[in-house]
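Aim 2 progress update. The chain analyzed this quarter is reproduced below.
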Amino acid sequence: MKTYILKRLLTMIPVFVITSVIIFSIIHLTPGDPARVILGDRAVEEEVIALQERMGLNKPLPVQYGDWIKGIFQGNLGESLFIDKPMWEIIADHMKPTLSLTIYALLIAVGIGIPFGILAARYRGSFLDHGVTFISLCGISLPNFVVALLLMLLLAFRIHLFPVAGYKGIDEGIGLHIRYLTLPALALGFIHTALIMRMTRSSVLEVLNSDYVKMARAKGVGEASIMVKHALKNALLPIITVIGQTAVTLLAGAVVCEAIFNIPGIGQLVVTSIERRDYMVIQAVVLVIALINMLMMLALDILYAVIDPRIRLSSR
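Predicted structure tokens:
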């Protein structure tokens, strides 16, 4: 197992290098001088040159990239031109709402998607199965911003069950924190709930049609035991794959819901930094999100190996 994890860690090194090069290239090859954008059209040339020197924009691009990577390995992600805080503190402050929203949406997607997917497979062809299929198609078809507006109209404006928008931190009370996050989490997790439902249903159905399940039924094994010990256990790998992809997609897709519900998360920080051309913040945020995604994929690979030891053997 240690060898397997070590190999996965080593494969992350070239991924990190390629990701950092892409992030740096996209940011720095965008047309326009960020120093002139920051200072405005009326800035004198001396001020522009001074800001370019401060930001290191007067150096060749390979040198700028080398300085950035060197700073990262020294624990320095850069310095914001507009926020007077360390970069790690800036990212941490905005990452808390995003992680809370992402985890809540993931719990909703998994908590609803897997049970209803199993029930749809168990009662194939029933009214429940058709209902799950209909909800799945709606979830896949509707964008999350449409779902967000519908939820705001129904649950906030009409019923007044949840706040329309805004954010309350967990330090202000867990109940209030969850109440403000419920609508955006439902909107963000709806499409992924549909995907997990469909994948769970199809995976469990495939296992239920296998010979060993038919043999278990012939021996008189109870239906509940068949669903849990045989069907779900052997259908876990594709379901876990979808859940891992869902976690990554939720983290990246939270930007829209944060904008609609006015949540001061990482998406809001990125949008504001793009408008200001605050390059160091954009680079740092995108790199941190990429690292989180890589760690999620690493955890997913390890979970694969724990569930199915054959994966470890095949890697050798």
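The two ends are 11 Å apart (CA to CA). The mean pLDDT is 83. These observations will guide the mutagenesis experiments scheduled for the next reporting period.
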